[in-house]
Write a structure and sequence with these properties.
It is built from twelve helices and five strands. With 265 residues, the protein is of the alpha/beta class.
């Protein structure tokens, strides 16, 4: 199989990664092109001990590192919205790499360590540092829509642990609407089936009809949202939930929400 045939399925993804890493479509594509030219000329080679995708990213990082990782053409608008790109670029370079490789590209920490030519503990440290940077950057006001007091308390504790401020806990659709009239949240965590028989789905529709805010559904009834008959939520967590799953979803929902403006807690 030719080199191009081996790498073709992975090229769109390494281009996506390069653009997010550099903060510029032009610069990211340039680095990918240089990496491919180096492979074609025999100046770089794929490590046969790695999967083709991991090996390609490894070569990209070799080029990236040897060039000094210059960001002279950086333009956050080129990577699909200034806010997430700006937040990425404020991370330290190595933390940004580890975060993007795992959160955006879906590599395991072990694979990220192979790509970055470092050890697993170092990648874990870099990811933790990136997550801390994200949590500090994205602190916001949170509305919880949940009718079970114990579950609501657990979610509130998780939210506060991440540095966010819980502005209200609503047990019904009416309470949710009243809550947003008092203070606009920067994030909504919603159950579907509420105390008076009302719907968390309808409560969220009411909220989104007034302003653009990221929403995470946490529910024991995911089938009510995964019908394929209407736009489905990006972030859906099934009860009973794992705390780390909720934390990760909160970070990703806030980080990648295109219309989000930071609201001070």
């Amino acid at each position: 199989m030719s080199l191009l045939a081996r790498l073709a399925p992975h090229l769109p993804y390494v281009r996506r990664y390069a653009r997010a890493l550099t903060g510029s479509q032009q610069t990211g594509d340039q680095y990918v092109r240089i990496a491919l030219e180096a492979l074609a000329a025999g100046e770089q080679s794929l490590n046969d001990q790695l999967s083709p995708r991991v090996a390609l990213y490894h070569v990209f990082h070799a080029i990236w590192g040897s060039s000094g990782a210059r960001l002279e053409d950086r333009n956050p608008e080129d990577v699909g919205g200034g806010a997430p790109a700006d937040r990425l670029m404020r991370m330290t370079p190595r933390s940004r790499q580890a975060f993007l490789l795992t959160a955006l590209e879906g590599f395991t920490p072990s694979e990220a360590a192979q790509i970055l030519d470092t050890g697993y503990p170092e990648v874990e440290r870099l990811i933790a540092q990136a997550q801390a940077d994200i949590d500090a950057e994205l602190a916001t006001d949170v509305l919880i829509i949940e009718d079970e007091p114990v579950i609501a308390a657990d979610i509130e504790a998780l939210v506060r642990e991440l540095g966010h401020n819980v502005v209200d806990i609503a047990a019904t659709r009416t309470e949710a609407v009243e809550a947003i009239a008092k203070k606009q949240p920067g994030l909504v965590l919603a159950d579907i089936q509420l105390a008076d028989g009302s719907s968390g789905i309808d409560a969220v529709k009411d909220i989104l009809g007034q302003f653009n805010v990221p929403v995470i559904f946490i529910t024991a009834f995911p089938e009510r949202l995964l019908t394929g008959e209407r736009p489905e939520p990006t972030f859906l967590i099934t009860k009973p939930f794992q705390p780390e799953t909720v934390k990760a979803a909160i970070g990703q929902a806030l980080f990648f929400h295109p219309g989000r403006q930071k609201i001070a807690a």
